[in-house]
Description:
Blueprint: E1 7-8, E2 13-14, E3 19-20, E4 25-26, E5 31-32, E6 37-38, E7 43-44, E8 47-50, E9 55-56, E10 61-62, E11 77-80, E12 85-86, E13 91-92, E14 102-105, E15 110-111, E16 116-117, E17 122-123, E18 128-129, E19 134-135, E20 140-141, E21 146-147, E22 152-153, E23 158-159, E24 164-165, E25 170-171, E26 179-185, E27 188-194, H1 196-201, H2 206-220, H3 222-225, H4 231-240, H5 246-261, H6 265-270
Parallel strand pairs: 1-4, 2-5, 3-6, 4-7, 5-8, 6-9, 7-10, 8-11, 9-12, 10-13, 11-14, 12-15, 13-16, 14-17, 15-18, 16-19, 17-20, 18-21, 19-22, 20-23, 21-24, 22-25, 24-26
Antiparallel strand pairs: 26-27
Helix pairs in contact: 2-4, 4-5
Amino acid sequence: xxxxxxxxxxxxxxxxxxxxxxxxxxxxxxxxxxxxxxxxxxxxxxxxxxxxxxxxxxxxxxxxxxxxxxxxxxxxxxxxxxxxxxxxxxxxxxxxxxxxxxxxxxxxxxxxxxxxxxxxxxxxxxxxxxxxxxxxxxxxxxxxxxxxxxxxxxxxxxxxxxxxxxxxxxxxxxxxxxxxxxxxxxxxxxxxxxxxxxxxxxxxxxxxxxxxxxxxxxxxxxxxxxxxxxxxxxxxxxxxxxxxxxxxxxxxxxxxxxxxxxxxxxxxxxxxxxxxxxxxxxxx
Length: 284
C-alpha cells in the first residue's frame, strides 16, 4: 500500500496494512506500526517509532533533527505510541544528547494544524493540542491535557493531568492538574477555575469534582490570597488533613514539587551548567 511516487528507504520497517501516500518520505531508521496511515507529502525521518494506527497528514514533518545548537548529530530518538493523529504541518523533533536523548509521546493524542513539539518533550496520552500551539524543549504534558490554539509553553514547564489551557496563553510556569488556565490579563496566565466539564467527560464523579472545587477555593480564591497565609502553607495544611481526596492529594503534591524546583520553567534554564557566564558574548 505504498504509492509509487513515495520515497521509502529499503531499511525502514513497516508493519502490516501500512498506507504511504504520494510523495511521502520515510527514512531508513523509521519504524511504523501496523495500520499506520502516512498521507501524501508527509515526512518521517530519524530514529522514529510510530505505534499502530497512527496517522500523519499532509505537510507534517516528524523526526527531523532538533532545533538546538548543542545537538551534534547523535542518534537520538522519537518514540510515539499508538492511535495518535498528527494533522497538517505538525512538527515533532527527537531528543538531544544533553536532554536524555528521547522525545516521547503516549497514545490517543490529537495534534492539530501547525503544532510544534520540540526536543526532549514528554507528552502523555489522550491530549488534545489545538492549532499552532508551540511546546518548547523539555516540556512535560501529563495525560488528558487540553490546550487551546496559539498557546506557547516555555522550556521545562510541566502541565498537570486534566488541565485546560485557554487559547493564546503564554505559559512560563507549571500548570496544576485539574485546573483551567487562561490569559486573563494580556498574555499573563491565571488559574481561573476547576476544569469541571473536562472532568465530567473523563468520568469523574460529582463528589470528586466538588472536592477539587473546594480545594481550589482554599488555594486560589481571593479570600485565600488575602488571608496572609502563604500558598505553600495552605497546600501543606490541606495535604495533612486526614482522609484527603486522592485527586486533591495529587494536586497538593504536584504543587509542592513545583515549589521545590522553582515555580517558573525558566528557573531550571538558569541552572544549566552550559549557560554563558555574565558578560560572555552571545552565540551567533
